[in-house]
Amino acid sequence: MHCLEQDDWPTRFKGAQDALSEFKEKRIIRAHGCSCHKLGALRAAAANPWVEVDLARINPIGSHMDAQPDTVLSVLREMKSKGKAVIGMKILGQGDMRARQDEALHYALSLGILDAFTIGAESIAEQSDLMRRISAVSV
Asked: Is the Cα torsion angle 56, 60, 63, 67 positive or negative in sign?
């Protein structure tokens, strides 16, 4: 489920959860979860046993995030303690950390919370540079 902002999304979108659960039972999908775009929605995802994987915005400067990094990290740690997978988004703060990519990548990779992360690239060259930078990060 994409771009959840409401604190009450687990009850509001129960029908969607039921449909995705059915798809998982039929092996059409392997896991179900959500991307959250407000702190209340993120906290609801952490508390909801239905969520198996969550996409969450995280970077060291709090750019385009649901709250300050420490606040978001506490919720992500709760998710991990419950066995949920966490995929990071906005690792470069929607471009705000373009000049500080190595710092942002080191931060994401050193958290010990993220199972994966997404970063948008505007060209193949930019994507190749990101992959090189990721490989060079030492944590």
From this structure: positive
CATH code for position 37: 3.20.20.100
Overall pTM > 0.85: yes
Tell me the pLDDT tens digit for each residue of 51-82: 999 999 999 999 999 999 999 999 999 999 99
Write the Ramachandran bin of 112: left for phi over 0, alpha for psi from -120 to 50, otherwise beta: left
The CB-side HSE value for 31 (13 A sphere, CA atoms) comes to 12
Structural tokens at position 20: 């995705």
Parent domain of 88 = 9-136
Estimate the crossing angle of helix 69-81 against helix 39-47, to 10 degrees.
10
For residue 79, the one-letter residue type is M
